[in-house]
Specification:
The complex is a heterodimer of chains A (271) and B (292). Chain A is mainly alpha-helical and 271 residues long. Chain A has 13 helices and no strands. With 292 residues, chain B is mainly alpha-helical. Classes of the chains: A mainly alpha (271), B mainly alpha (292).
């Protein structure tokens, strides 16, 4: 028994090393003196750790602005999409209205269509509406998501009808029932949904790249991609930029991983 | 009555947003792909002409389109099996009762999934550096290399595959792990009594029980991998000599660098057709599976 445990644990550590090395290397290089990483053999730890790269990053580039842009956009996308998705998801699960099931089937069928197909006409639409180069334009495709509505609906199906019926008999309005009974019951899936929305918005690349061309409005991923083309040789500076971009999402994931992983499993049964 | 008013009020914001920013653009995309919408039409719509299947016919005659399709298929063919094998290995390790610190390792394996693709692509570009990269240094330790990963048309796509496996294996690991946990212990017990070793148990108990989940996971991963874009954008800019130009990369360059929007939409529809075909295969196969 013991003998068999050794290869299993060795394999586990090796795979763990594979998963962690790039992130640890990033952190380590971001603390090196400028130029230190470009040596052979590659140094794994900084000889004299310094925060100089972070200082340079924020002093010579608009990193602080890009960070705030990303933060504002991800927060807005999270608030808006979570609100609209939870309203629609609850209604699809618990309120009868004509054409409900057919409508829901159509929404689900749309999951097959990749978002990129819509992107060029969406760009033209945003141009018509004067949304090119605006945060509203970035947010447009994430106001509501089929996946989010689906996730809420699956979860809301478990709310007992008797509970809602009893409130109706007591004379509560539908809006009141939604706020005081449904929303509290849906809190776990709300957290899941909000985590998904925030991470997706923070990391989104193609759409913001298309819709934003004003440098001052760029998000972190786009700014980082541009910087990395200009500063190919500046290993240490670029790794500081990567740390700034990754730290918020990794911390958010660590704090909310239970909600994130349960949502991932709930979403994957759709297949 | 009152209830249906409430219901429509609740679904309306989401439905209006989806109709306007998703369904309308999809329909428009189909129409757009039959036109020669370009920079001139962008300036003045009177310059727009209907070209029927012209864009699609031009595509079929463009060598770069075939190369982009071939590159994307290379990425899928190399990347999907490698990713799923890694995911399965990770899931088996996490599920093994012999392993220690399992929940910590689960978090570690999953962490790359939540990272921002552009940022980690920048990291990997340095790891793949020919002279100073950690990967060539490690290869050197066992007497291999140095490989010009991102600078040679042969190695650029495999390098992107390695990066994609690292980034994504944690996702399918979670789904496969859930699948593994539904296999009853009795089945393993029975196999052990019949004298099956660990390998035989894996082949005759684990794999058959996991097959339906593996099918879904494979097809979803294929669909995701066909949408390759940001990796080549950051790591290789589609090069060297277009060896990492993917279908979506071609769409982006044609659409938003040359402003051939009609043509680029046709490229997007080809991608859609591929993904749609994959979904049909999945539905067909899972029906056959559940029919048994």
């Amino acid at each position: 028994m013991r003998r068999r445990a050794i290869p299993v644990n060795v394999a586990m550590w090796l795979l763990g090393l594979f998963a962690m090395t790039p992130l640890l290397w990033m952190l380590s290089v971001s603390l090196m003196q400028p130029g230190e990483a470009a040596h052979f053999p590659p140094p794994l730890l900084p000889a004299r750790p310094t925060v100089q790269n972070y200082v340079t990053l924020f002093a010579t580039t608009d990193m602080a602005r890009f960070f705030l842009n990303s933060l504002a956009l991800a927060t807005l996308a999270t608030l808006i999409s979570t609100t609209f998705n939870v309203m629609a998801g609850y209604a699809f699960a618990k309120l009868d209205f004509r054409g409900r099931d057919a409508l829901f089937r159509w929404l689900l069928a749309a999951l097959v269509i990749p978002a990129q197909v819509a992107m060029i006409p969406l760009f033209l639409l945003c141009k018509e509406l004067g949304l090119v180069n605006s945060f509203a334009g970035v947010l447009a495709p994430s106001i509501a998501t089929v996946f989010g509505i689906f996730l809420v609906r699956q979860y809301a199906l478990a709310i007992p009808d008797e509970l809602l019926e009893a409130a109706r008999i007591d004379g509560a309005s539908e809006w009141r029932i939604f706020r005081s009974i449904a929303l509290p019951a849906l809190t776990p899936i709300l957290v899941t949904l909000a985590t998904f929305a925030f991470l997706a918005s923070w990391s989104d690349f193609l759409w913001p790249l298309i819709i934003l061309n004003d440098t001052a409005k760029q998000t972190l991923p786009i700014a980082l991609a541009n910087l990395s083309r200009e500063h190919v040789q500046d290993f240490e500076l670029m790794m500081a930029g990567a740390v700034v971009t990754l730290a918020p999402v990794l911390l958010l994931f660590l704090a909310l991983q239970r909600y994130y992983l349960s949502g991932l499993l709930a979403g994957s049964v759709k297949g | 009555m009152r209830r249906s008013v409430a219901a429509w009020t609740l679904v309306a914001p989401a439905l209006i947003a989806l109709a306007m920013f998703f369904f309308l653009p999809i329909v428009a995309a189909l129409l757009l792909s039959f036109t020669d919408f370009d920079l001139y039409a962008l300036a003045d719509l009177h310059n727009l002409r209907f070209v029927g299947l012209g864009n699609y016919l031009t595509l079929l005659k463009t060598p770069l389109f075939w190369q982009a399709l071939g590159n994307t298929i290379e990425f899928v063919v190399l990347g999907v099996p490698l990713s799923i094998a890694t995911s399965l290995g990770a899931a088996l390790l996490i599920n093994s009762k012999l392993a220690r610190f399992r929940s910590i390792f689960r978090t570690i394996f999953f962490a790359p999934v939540v990272t921002t693709l552009v940022a980690v692509a920048v990291i990997w570009r340095y790891l793949f550096n020919t002279r100073f990269g950690v990967i060539n240094w490690l290869l050197g330790l066992i007497g291999l290399g140095p490989v010009d990963w991102l600078g040679s048309p042969h190695w650029a796509m495999p390098a992107i595959v390695i990066f994609a496996v690292w980034k994504n294996f944690g996702y399918n690991m979670i789904i496969l792990l859930a699948g593994l946990q539904t296999i009853p212990d009795d089945l393993y017990e029975a196999a052990r009594i019949d004298g099956a070793g660990p390998l035989a148990q894996f082949r005759h108990v684990t794999l058959p029980a996991l097959a339906p989940v593996m099918l879904v996971v494979s097809i979803l991963t294929m669909a995701a991998y066909f949408q390759l874009f940001a990796e080549p954008y950051v790591m290789t800019q589609g090069g060297p000599v277009q060896s990492t130009t993917s279908i979506l990369y071609l769409m982006f360059v044609q659409g938003f660098q040359f402003w051939n929007l009609g043509y680029a939409t046709a490229v997007a529809f080809v991608l859609f057709a591929i993904l749609f075909a994959l979904t049909l295969v999945q539905v067909r196969l899972s029906r056959r599976w559940s029919g048994q």
